[in-house]
Amino acid sequence: MSTPVSVFALILNFFNLDIDGARRDALRGLVLSNQNNNTLISKILIKGDVFVFPKRFIHFQANIGHIPAVAIASLNSQNPGVITIANVVFGLNPPIFDYALAKAFQVDKKVIDYLQAQLWVAS
């Protein structure tokens, strides 16, 4: 869950810098996916650490600890948007051809048919 940070609106000309901010209350776990060379990057952050996600970098963030965790994010746009990958891949109308997805994900077509039949809420 992300919470918009309104304090940045008080900073003169902040939005003219094409920078925005958000607070992220992290769930358990951290998995990152790199589209370059199909490389997985996994990083466990501790208090005070900084991590930068490059543009268009598919990523997943979660809290692996047993106490609440908070992340403060700085974004490169006033409205950077969010795209949930599963919604885009399996929830399109008209859908992506199931045989193409089955080949891409290396699963049986029945798995893709099942996923495409689910109700995908727009992100």
Automatic annotation (TrEMBL):
Q: Which residues does the record give as Mn(2+) binding sites? A: 59
Among its keywords, does the record have Manganese?
yes
Q: Start and end of every Cupin type-1 domain? A: 29-112
Keyword line: Apoplast, Manganese, Metal-binding, Secreted
> Which residue spans adopt a coiled-coil conformation according to this UniProt entry?
none
List the GO terms this entry assigns under cellular component, sorted alphabetically.
apoplast
| Subcellular location, record wording | Secreted, Extracellular space, Apoplast
GO MF term (any one): manganese ion binding
Family, similarity comment:
Belongs to the germin family.
Name of the featured protein: Germin-like protein
Organism encoding this protein: Cinnamomum micranthum f. kanehirae
Q: What is the lineage of its organism?
A: Eukaryota, Viridiplantae, Streptophyta, Embryophyta, Tracheophyta
